[in-house]
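Why do we bother with holo predictions? Because pocket geometry can differ from the apo form. Keep that in mind while you read this record for FE4-S3 cluster.
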Amino acid sequence: MTMFCYQCEQTAQGKGCTKSGVCGKEPLPAALQDLLVTAVQGMAQYAHRLQGFGIVDREANVQIVETLFATVTNVNFDPTRLLMVFRAGLKTIERLKAKYEDACRKAGKTVEAIACSVPGLNATDSAEDLAKRAEGIQIDRRVGRVGPDVIGLQELVMYGLKGAAAYLDHAQVLGVVDDATFAAFNEIVSFVANNPTNIPQLTAMALKTGEVNLKAMELLDTANTTAYGHPEPTPVRITPVKGKGILVSGHDLKDLEDLLKQTEGKGVNVYTHGEMLPAHAYPGLKKYKHLVGNYGGAWQDQAKEFDEFPGAVLMTTNCIQKPRDSYKARIFTSGVVAWPGVTHIAKRDFAPVIKAALAAPGFSADGENKTIMTGFARNAVMSVAGAVIDAVKAGKIRHFFLIGGCDGAKPGRNYYTDLAQAVPKDCVILTLACGKYRFNKLPFGDIGGIPRLLDVGQCNDAYSAVQIAVALSKAFGVGVNELPLSLVLSWYEQKAVAILLSLLHLGIKNIRVGPSLPAFVTPPVLKVLVENFNIAPVTTPQEDLKAILKN
Ligand code: SF4
Ligand code: SF3
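The structure, written out:
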């Protein structure tokens, strides 16, 4: 069985994973994920056409988003669950098709067939049969048909949508959905499903995807702040507390909240890991006294950290890695995440996680009390905007850096640690996403009481960072590109792609991206991005700092 995947930064040799994924993805789940994308294209095309008749199928829209989220890097490695999701997709395609045909009949319009890259698939087909059929839509085959630039751009759009799907899913689990955003999402999916080859049109759609993702992040911001209040600057303990524990990783705040409710009074402490760290800043979550701290760092350190954590572990979203045998029985997945042989929590009933935590030894003693700060989202930063603006005007703050994004395991990622440390003392660093762990435990001090390192939140809080930038630009009466602000981003998976497209949609220029450029962005496409947005790959911290601060 063959595969081809180049959707993330760690793709083999910077070209594509062909035998198995560097992430641990095997050819069978890879093929099933390719088919999930075709199922999404089928569902979205019908949903898009139904929208043309004024018919909104909310249930299908939610399913489209969930299905695409399952194809994001380090989310779902389990062929059994992927097959289940695929079959559900086929069923929905049939349901939407009937609804569309009915709408056509009633309106006296001709029924038109949708584009389908793998026709004749059946819900009764085995995973292996399906995988064989999926070979025809493998990226390298498609590249052979229309060339690498077109496929690279088609994939760029789909990866941006994958990132947006993750954020839309988090928002919808908190009850926030927006039919207009689903409609725009389905329109873009339908566009790609028709195998477009026009490069300017594809580029425009990539920017439109950025617009949809910006809306997705805004919806999630609304969902999070409505459910849990606005983040407040909060010290977070980074050392253990004596007793039993559960470590929660990933991005899903609703999972964390339900777990906190279900563990109340059970003698189990809850710790955050990776992207869950900013949860400590939300009033609606920090009120739980047994949410005691953050343990460990970013996702790529999980094997060692989960191994050493003497309790249960819950992965609520990406990034899951192959669990070691030492903790396979005490790690659990929820939502769209899955790993073969790992217990999946259904309907947020975390009883098995709590049981595993109680059966594990827990921490035998308290660690020394050390803390780091989080919670500098838009509301917190804007409440001190006056002091920040005065400090800039008085020349006390020379420049702002946004250093953050998705982290990974490659050695080249030390660039971000070195850069943060080399930033001059009269500059402020905003950070977000799991890339922050490269430097968030280092002392940065403050400028007249304003901390030099401000943790804005999770990757989706890029929305909050954009709001901060817009507020600053208004205060100074200049455009965002004229602000003393530089963005130096790290990318790993498709949410970072979505965020980058959102920033480009907003017209933000001069972004530096690393540690390497995406394999799917071919030289001609890169040329367009450089010409229009002056995007640049990171070089060395010294060279980049010199270039940024030269004005
Ligand atoms: Fe390779 Fe990344 Fe795809 Fe995994 S997600 S198979 S590492 S390109
Ligand atoms: Fe990290 Fe996976 Fe992307 Fe939310 S946890 S940023 S890489």
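DSSP finds 20 helices and 16 strands in the chain.
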